[in-house]
Design brief:
The protein has helices spanning about 55-65, 85-90, 90-95, 110; strands at about 25-35, 40-50, 70-75, 80, 100, 120-125, 130-135. The chain is an alpha+beta fold. Strands 2-1-7-6-3-4-5 form a 7-stranded mixed beta sheet.
Length: about 140
Amino acid sequence: MAAKIIQFPGNARTTRPGSACASEGTPLDLSIECVDADVPLVQTATVGAGDSLADLHRLITDLFRWDDAHNYFFSHGSCRYEDPVLFRSQDRVSARCRRIYSAADVPVGAVLNPEAPPLFYVYNLVGGWELRISLADDVSLTQFD
């Protein structure tokens, strides 16, 4: 009996029609807040929908002035997007079956859109900094003539 290989859930870069990633140049305004902080800590940032989650990681380490000396991962629903260093150490077939992807391969716009739940980010897996990332819900106002 031969085993049938099923790609599950498929190419992580594939976008659904109407998703935020349909236009890679689309800017996304993000709200990045620290979960379980004694004092509310929220940062805002703008990224391109086509920027990878690994690019978002670098932006976050700059925003929070972290030294980028620890591993990280993002989670969104049942999917996990890992630091490419961690991802390389795994068996790719079993990782795909467990819905684990390299953060370098997934654009931000593929996981964040107005209807999607927030994206979570964990940095320093031992110390445990956790951030909640969502699209900013404030609308910039323009002056009318």
